[in-house]
Protein 1
Amino acid sequence: MTDRLRLMCVHAHPDDESSKGAATMARYVDEGHEVLVVSCTGGERGDVLNPNLKDDPAILRDLAEVRRAEMRAAQEILGVQHTWLGFVDSGYPEGDPKPPLPAGCFALEPIEVTTEALVAEIRRFRPHVVTTYDEDGGYPHPDHIMCHDVTVSAFRAAGDPTAYPHAGEAWQPLKLYYNATFTKERVEGFHAYLTEQGLESPFGEWLQGWDRPSRPTTTKVPCGDWFERRDDALRAHATQIDPGGVFFSIPLAVQRAAWPTDDFELAASYVPVELPEEDLFAALPQEVAAADALARSSNLELAYDTIKERSAT
């Protein structure tokens, strides 16, 4: 390739990028495109989920720096660019009733503040495509929900020259996707394949207790050849993943046979699309100059828009 389209993937914490769409990112890097991961927070309030490391005093002494080092390692493995948006992890409130979120955390920041920070990154990197989480955050972590809110807000504002004029020259990304990693469809697909092959499935009880509504999957990106890179990047976040857990319990050959794609939900597009898709860059001009000109156009109109506003309640 001589032209490099640009993809921005917005995540709440370091490690989220390696568990959601990482194989797709690695594929696009290898194909010559530019990929930028934005981590909204530093993951400072995360738990140590690896049972082999949970009592390590060096980790407990400075988890924030450990997670930065893990992110650098994962970034190198995937070959992506990376930036910190600079907000503070909110932590995951647990208990009944749940405790209030800590003052100054990402989820409590004014949306205008978080939006301007991401608008500045969008206008600097000039992505043609942006990915993030759905309005429920993928799961109801306050940082994931805020990540959705700020990304949708910034996607809308970045192309408006009157919005946040000090954040750089206006730039309109052309497509917005939600990660569709942990869908019932995908889990059922794995479970069915494993059962048909006479293999033990870890997903039976998981499916019995499934209580989340189904969401549409519009885009399946073939990326099975990059599953090793995905898993290596995820292991680089050593404090955040159990090496003996379900993420690594299914052999890669089985994963490629059962579900060889990363899945996404198209939320908004400024170009006419034909669904389903197999490429996040589908329907975009493949020459960067043409794609850039389109993104700078003042006459863009949404051709496809399923962005859903979260209820104020």
Protein 2
Amino acid sequence: MLKCKETMTGVKNVIPPEDMEAINRYSKTPLTPEEVFTFDLLLCDNEIDRDFERFSADAISGLCEMFLGRTGIFDHTWSAHGQKARIYKTQVIEDPSKITSYGEPYIYLKASAYMLRNAENEALIDDIRSGIKKEVSIGCSVKEITCNICGEPDGSPSCSHIRGAEYDGVICCRVLNEPTDAYEWSFVAVPAQRDAGVMKRFSGAADDDAIKRLEKEADLGRMYLGKLRDDTAKSAVLVLPELNEDILRSVLSKLDEKELMSLGETLKKRADKLYPPVCQLKYQREQARDKDENYYKI
């Protein structure tokens, strides 16, 4: 019989009895705290996302019940093989300390999920704990999508407002209302909603110092990607100054490390050709036309 890491090291895995009761509503055979790993998720919120869409507060409340029992997969690939976790508890939370970009109280849908502790899931559990597997995205359907500027249905000929454009200081987006179904939630590399992901609350009592170290390394990785995106954006603006910087950065936010490095290197080479080094001293620039390259030295 396989044992979890906590059992091997003699550390008790503590999960509240009410959580175990909720988990066992979905299990065919009763599970014990030592057999499961639990973690919290921010599934969605009412902030404008990367697609310039946002959920209404009522939609988030409607999704709360719908996501109970839904499974977690990878990259929205609907395959039974990818089912690794299941949501056993949800709640809508309002954060009074945070206001959305359009001035309303920040609301989000929090979920708690469980997965089995076994050899197959050991690597995934480590990735979740370390912050590597963090971002998530949801799959759902809604009955109504409206423009936040005029209130007309999305696609209506009466609405000429463009997503992402600004009208009298208000960013245009589409408001998602009246959810009809919740399909699944997925681990993804880049979620549409910027804050959607695994929250810092884990079951068990793993070594705190190790967790902090791994979280720090994950933060450094995100800082590195941020700098890589900034450098690539600067090169792109030099090469194509007519590009809209906000749109450019939105596109770059969806690229991974290898894609950013490849694109950044190409843009840098192009920028070097467009803006080659020049002499800094005027008299040397004039004399260099008829002299050798030593006149370019400062």
Protein 3
Amino acid sequence: MSKLPVIKGKDFVKFLQSIGFNIIRTRGSHVRLKAEDGRVTTVPIHSNKNLPKGLLRKIIREDLELSLEEFIRIFDKYKKR
């Protein structure tokens, strides 16, 4: 099993936009995104800090409805562009 990447909040929002999520609201330091199929997630952007691993896992599993392996594969393709 591959390791979960370290991702900053701003970078994660850009990644989510590249896979079909659109920003629907920004409130303070939190960005709310929604996909065409109805999936919704909120990403904190706190002074350019990395997202905590537990929060990233929760977003991937519950909000994006992806397995960790699927996410890592898609994210690696995104980073290589």
Protein 4
Amino acid sequence: MRAQQIKRRILQDVKRFFKSSEEEKFFPGRTYINYAGRVYDEKELINLVDASIEFWLTEGRYSKEFGEKLARFFGIKYCILTNSGSSANLLAISALTSPLLKEKRLKPGDEVITTACGFPTTLNPIIQNNLVPVFIDIELGNYNIQVEKIEKAITKKTKAVFIAHTLGNPVDLDKIMKIVKKYKLWFIEDNCDSLGSKYKGKYTGTFGHISTCSFYPAHHITTGEGGAVLTNNPILKKIILSFRDWGRDCWCETGCDNSCGKRFSWKLGKLPYGYDHKYIYSHIGYNLKMTDLQAAIGIAQLEKLPGFIKTRRKNFSKLFEFFKKYEKYFVLPQWEKDSEPAWFGFPLLIKKDAPFSRSEIVNYLENNKIATRMLFGGNLLRQPAYQGIIRKTIGNLKNTDYVMNNLFWIGVYPGITEEKMKYILNTFDKFMQKIE
């Protein structure tokens, strides 16, 4: 009883601490406006301190609650938490190599259709699992895969399609789903930048056989580091858990023993009968679990997600309306008519005849304390890490190259207040006045 009273006082003090902390003041031209960042209140701090007092340092009650609530948000049966979105992507592709999938498993040399325009950890798991990435160019304006080229890229070796919804902008899921069903392909959605985006009223991340999320501070919600893998398939859930948890065959939750009821009655591989099931390994796996401290933050963040999505869309709309007057210089973002993006950022592609370069405008913005970003790795095939990889390319990647050289994006995250937005728009106006 005494311990609970002390704990209550500590958590009350945490709340008072947050309420008494000074809100950061914004000074136009002096305060740096990030492209993304943490948005939180006392609830995240209270959950974090509560979890730290319990000192259950790996998965525990908070992880269970966060996973269940995230699954309910999507309307998906299974949510497997992990330590990052990159790990989630690695688990998604690795799971498809499992012998448990029999003739549907991916084997070395099998082909996976993707794009070269994106973040490295969409591509890396394909290479790391000895699969062959097949690259298709992107559309200018929405920066997603050219869907009409997917069917042309399919061969007898094609087994999967693995693509991201670029900057939260859903791909043409109707066409992709028809293709993957027609050719009986696996479809993996990298939903790391798209939490809350919808296509025909349904959340992205619910269309693929497997989808992934990231909770890095730049994303729609954060746990610091963290991610999740989602699926409706019970076999895939079992495989993903195995790969995440050292490759073990056992599915006991952390701190539990003998969930199967026959811990010392298994006969698997060439092990002796009765070898402890907790130490039997059916896959060559990893240890990629989330901690309870991270999950505790995630629960509080998930409650804020609807508001975060609303603010991202509002900030995007303000920018879109503003940049209509500068359409002769920029290709403005485009999206599918049936989609409702929860935007990760606002992309601006500089047209060929614009009287300024990307470097000029990006340097101007950065010098005026406005953060900018490239579209991740640009053309990944031009990055030093990917020289000499085994790959196939369908047609050319001219749009990917054009984006690499001419696109940048700015933030729309909820930390961009009306005051900051006004400064951003005024700064763009000043740059345009100089060049017009």
